[in-house]
Each structure stands twice: as structure tokens, then as C-alpha cells.
Amino acid sequence: MPKILRIVNRFNLGGPTFNAAYLTKYLSPEYETLLIGGKHTDSEESSDHILNNLDVNFLKIEEMSREVSLLNDYRAYKKIKQIIADFNPDIVHTHASKAGLLGRLAAKKMGVKIIVHTFHGHVFHSYFGAIKTSIFKNLERFLAIKTDKIIAISNIQKQELSEKHKIAQPEKFKVIPLGFDLNKFKENIAENRTLFRNNYQVKDNEIVISIVGRLVPIKNHKLFIDAINLLTKKTDKNIKAFIVGGGELFDELTKYVTILKLQNNIIFTSWIKETEQVYAGSDIVALTSLNEGTPVSLIEAQAAALPIVSTNVGGVSDITIKNSSIIVNQKIEELTKAFTEIINNFEIFKQNAEINQSKIIEKFSYQRLINDYKLFYAQLINEKKLVKK
């Protein structure tokens, strides 16, 4: 059978790890996969439990970290080369930037026949200054030359990468959306809602607006906090906002909430592995990011039949259904207005979200993901005329 070496940036909680885990587990027996990646940072939640629950074997490369370190990056590169020599893969498939850099360079050096890379997001705006951004773009253009196929996770992302940022020609891209096990978000709703709300002492008449993700600058949580602050002044409804996640901005954001005297309205939960309880206990889910690929939290929220409010970034408009979501610009007033509109017309938005639920679960199921990749890899192998092992 063909062998795939799959490389992720690091084993932190997020879309890349979920998808790498499902592909490693369920592409068997047609493909043999070895999954490797770096270690999660101290401010992130480990994804080891995801891999262990799926009984997926994986190998950590301690030197492959989020930070740029010439010494550690070179050591990781050498380890990847050795793994390639030992495993002898037909395909090396990298996920996200650091894995894409080290993995593709190592694969090319070792003569791997097929090299694939997935952009789960990109750093071409809202992360760095103009000079650094230009360096990253040119580096990705160079790596694209060494890549047989580039996976975009939405049509909008493909358009951005090929037409706006000129990473590669459109024909080098293949769009394959993310896939997850979403059935848990439609099961045991009442029980999970009670568990979540009792745990945080939320009353039945309180409206819960949640945001799920890392507490880092790109997620722009201050916009969410400012909108909640304005919302509490504009409505007579009882509002509870939950910030679910952890990260480097935890102290700064909690201090900001204290300054605004919103401690009774905004609750920080840190990471919660049972996200189905979060969504069951929530009424609206928000996203305020400056840059995104395809936000997992919005896919999960829609799978849980929740109305959503999001900034217009990345592939958001590709994954959201209009009659149960509102997409806004990066403005406090627009975000607050969207929250107000859903609150005032909640039954309509909720009913639409329930109608759309099955569409989302089908579109972003891991079964669909596996089928897409089986066909995709078979086509690549056929084009390269590789003999199956």
C-alpha cells in the first residue's frame, strides 16, 4: 500500500490536528500513514487526547516549535530527513507553515515523489509588518515550486492565495474543506445545556454569547469584550458572555474586563475539552478574528444549531449559512447591532440554524474528508505512475 508521512506544525488543540488525526486513522487500510509534529506551547491546550481517543500513533519532534530558532529548526529538519529515510513514504503531506517549510524541504532533498501542503490559514496580513510579510510570501512562493499540489480549505482561501498573494497558479490548488466528527453536537443537548449552565450558575433567562479560541492578538478578543460592553448598555436582556480558551493574552484580557467592570457579564473558562457542553449551553457564538482560515468554532457552532456572528475574514463566508448567521466588519457598533438583531429575533435565527444543521454536519463530516482524500491521493499516484507497495 502507498505510504504517507503526515506532518503538522504541533500537536495543539485545533483544526489541523483534528484533520491529521482523522486522516491517519481512517485512510487505512488503503494507505499507511505515519503522523509526526511539534510540541504544543505552554499557552496552548495539548491535542494528545484527540489522538489517543482515536488510537492514533504519533511521533513528536521536540525541536519543531512555534518560535523561529535556526538551531532547533535545523535539528527538526534533520530528524524529518531521517524519518523519511526510515519510513520511505510515497507522499509527504505537510499541514501549516512550520511543518510546510521543514517538511517540504526535507522531502525534496530526500527525493520523495509526491509533496502536498495544506494551508489551514496564512500569515499574509494582520500578523507582521510589511517587510516580514513580504519575506514569508516569497518563501511560500519558493516552497510552492517544490510542491505537487497545494490544498486550500475553502474557495475563498484558494482565491486569496492564488490571485491576491500570488503564491502559485490556480491550477496548483485543490480545495478540500475540513472534516470533523460533528454528531456529538446534536446529541444530549438538554443534558449538556444543564451541565454547562449549572456549572457556571447561568440562569434560564440569561442569554449566553460564547467565543471559542486561543487568547492571542489575531483573535481580537478586545473587540468581543467591547461589543459585549456596549450590548449590556443597549439591551435590557440579561447577557452572559463566555470566553473559552487560553493563551498569552489571558492576564491582559481579564484585567481589561475588570477595568470595564464586566466581571459579572464576562466569564473566562480557560480550555474546555467537552466543547459540546459549551455550545449546548450557549445561545449565540461569536468570532472576532483579524485573520482566519476556516474557523473550527463556527463549524461546530452551526453543527450545534446555533446562530453565529462573525467578522468577515478568511473562509467565514464559505462556511456560514446566511439565514442563521450575520457577518460584520471589524467595528464594535456592527458587532453589537448583529448581537441585538439575533437576540430580538432569536426564534427565527434559531429555527433557521436547526434547519441548516444537517447540511453543515454533512458538508464538514470526517467521512466526506476521508473520501475526498482517497480520491485525491489516488489521482496523484496515478499521475506520477507510482507502483503501489
Descriptive report:
This protein has 389 residues and is of the alpha/beta class. The protein has 2 domains: 3-181 and 365-384, Glycogen Phosphorylase B (Rossmann fold), CATH 3.40.50.2000; 183-363, 3-Layer(aba) Sandwich (Rossmann fold). Helix content is 46%, strand content 17%. It has 15 helices and 13 strands. The chain has helices at 15-26, 48-53, 70-87, 97-109, 130-145, 155-164, 189-199, 221-234, 250-259, 275-281, 296-303, 316-319, 332-344, 346-363, 366-384; strands at residues 3-10, 32-38, 58-61, 91-95, 114-119, 149-152, 173-175, 206-212, 238-244, 266-270, 284-287, 308-311, 325-328. It has a 7-stranded parallel β-sheet, with helices on both faces. Strand 1 (3-10), helix 1 (15-26) and strand 2 (32-38) form a beta-alpha-beta unit. Helix 1 (15-26) packs across helix 15, helix 3 crosses helix 4 and helix 8 (221-234) packs across helix 13. The relative contact order is 0.12. The model has no long low-confidence stretch (mean pLDDT 92).
Topology summary:
Layout: E1 3-10, H1 15-26, E2 32-38, H2 48-53, E3 58-61, H3 70-87, E4 91-95, H4 97-109, E5 114-119, H5 130-145, E6 149-152, H6 155-164, E7 173-175, H7 189-199, E8 206-212, H8 221-234, E9 238-244, H9 250-259, E10 266-270, H10 275-281, E11 284-287, H11 296-303, E12 308-311, H12 316-319, E13 325-328, H13 332-344, H14 346-363, H15 366-384
Parallel strand pairs: 1-2, 1-4, 2-3, 4-5, 5-6, 6-7, 8-9, 8-11, 9-10, 11-12, 12-13
Helix pairs in contact: 1-15, 3-4, 7-10, 8-13
